Amino acid sequence: MPLKYFRSVATVAATLVLAMVFSSCAQPDPKVSPSVAESVSAELAPFYEQEVTWKSCGGTKTYCGTIEVPADWNNPGESSFKLAVAYHQADKVKPLGSVIFNPGGPGASGYSWITDSIDQLGTDQLRANFNIVGFDPRGVGLSEPHVTCLGAKATDGLLYGDTGFELGSAQDIAATRAQTKVFSDACLENTGPGLGLLDTVSAAHDMDVIRAVFGDSQMNYLGFSYGTFLGTTYAELYPEKVGRMVLDGAINPNISESDSSLNQLVGFDQAFRNFVNDCVTSADCPFKGTSSQAVKEVKTLLKKVESNPVNTDTGRELTIWGLITGMIMPLYSEDYWPYLSQAFSELKQGDGSTFMLLADVYNDRLDNGTYASNTMEAHRAISCLDGRESADESAMAAQNKRALSASAVFGRYWQFGGLGCEQWPFPVAKRPANYDAAGSAPILVIGTTGDPATPYEEAVSLANEILENGHLVTYNGEGHTAYGRSNQCIADAVDNYFIKNVVPSEDPNC
Question: What counts of helices (H) and strands (E) characterise the chain?
């Protein structure tokens, strides 16, 4: 089972249409440069005072460049990483400033969002009033150190293959451990020692350098999904530098990895049941009868695929792991539910083609067998440094029991999560003792009631219990994250906050 499904719905959707196009033609320097005196050490001054050469890329008023940050923030004078940064100029001649954006992951590219999908980010009002800044965090995409692990064929085996043994048996666990060891060793060998410096705290420090380079005394920020954890971490490290911060699809940073995984399991289980409840009311639903009967039929189908992979039109076999990933992907948004219905209709006829397509979209796998990004590798690297479930046998047994109880559909495939980071070559990085961001400006926290990947309850906790100055904005609906894809109520709440600095006096309950 993949570690966590923390990708924003926008990031998943973009893989359907993303076409990377870069232009190297030089344009007049748009004059983005540090303009605020920073009180930093002599070792950090070169990073905070650097000036970037920007070049046109991706489209009109879009510029790309490279920003250097300390490789090791505990020893900033030793070496540096280069981060790929892109920004889209505001439509207005005198913008209100910049908004730094992170789409989620960990491991998703903010850079490519700016160059390729800027019109799908936020609203026209936001883009008119602010420069929108996206970057590839350390380890991700075009930034250093680019996490590289296995070749495409071996990655296929990791993501889509099975061990050949009964799920959860001693032989299956042993084979999984061996496979995970090969993956971890390859990541270290092909990435280098920088693999141990990719934690979220370091990435949050990097954002402060980006803020300074863009000449902002305070950082305006828009984070989706995992990006909310990155933003919360920044707010804790630099509360006095928080400007206007929106955390959409929020993660509770104080709960354990085991509880976080279980919360997500419950979220996807509920999203699937919501899909089934909607499906059985439709004439073209692949399931007949009641919702309970449909869920029972799905469990039977899954169990059958465990031992009998299904053919697809690609010539590849759909295993249980390709099927589970293919089920997860369309649960990110109710707009994708028709694809899930189609996939089940085909599966019942012995065809796994649509499920394979959905899994490929989620995994950024291209038709030619290569992968469009290193999202999976970076995701694993960052996640394993930020925290990990226990691989102790008794702890895994207890967690497995919780998973089986939490979801009759997905619980069987959510077991043994501790194996994912058990053999990672670096220990968990040091994190802040708490995340209250004491003294910060007001922070908007958006939670979607039907969010499968970052359950609503975590947004409630972050806004009402953890952040000293958090303000909850609820979207009553399905899907992962809300701003830019839900309704006008959410758009108005966020835009008024960013543009007019209007903080909702109470939850608008959109």
Answer: 17, 11
A 10 A CB-CB count for 17 gives 9
- CB burial readout 169-194, b (16+ within 10 A) else e: eeebbeebeebbebbbebbbebbeeb
At 308-321, the pLDDT tens digits run 999 999 999 999 99
DSSP string for 180-234: HHHHHHHHHHHH-GGGGG--HHHHHHHHHHHHHHTT-SSEEEEEETHHHHHHHHH
- What number of other Cβ atoms are within 10 A of residue 476's Cβ? 15
The domain spans of the chain are 9-145+197-254+432-500, 264-363
pLDDT at 29: 45
Contacts 24+ apart (CB under 8 A), 272-278: 272/327, 272/331, 272/409, 272/410, 274/334, 274/450, 274/478, 275/330, 275/331, 275/334, 275/337, 275/340, 278/334, 278/337
The pLDDT > 90 percentage for the chain reads 89
Distance between CA 226 and CA 481 in Å, rounded? Answer: 11
Examine the pLDDT at 123 and tell me if it is beyond 50. Answer: yes
Task: Extract the tokens encoding 254.
Answer: 């104080």
* The amino acid at 240: E
pLDDT tens string 160-174: 999 999 999 999 999
Residue found under tokens 């026209």: 124
Alpha-carbon span 165 to 307, nearest angstrom: 9
pTM of the model: 0.93
Chain-centroid distance of CA 74 in Å reads 26
Q: How far is CA 481 from CA 131, 136, 453, in A?
A: 22, 20, 9
- Burial pattern 133-155, b for ≥16 Cβ within 10 A else e, equals bbbbbbbbbbbbbbbbbbeeeeb
Mean pLDDT of 363-388: 96
Rounded to the nearest 10 degrees, the angle between the axes of helix 353-363 and helix 337-347 is 140
Taking domain 9-145+197-254+432-500, whether its CATH number is 3.30.720.210 is answered by no
> What DSSP string describes 396-428?
HHHHHHHHHHH-TTTGGGS--GGGTTTT-SSPP
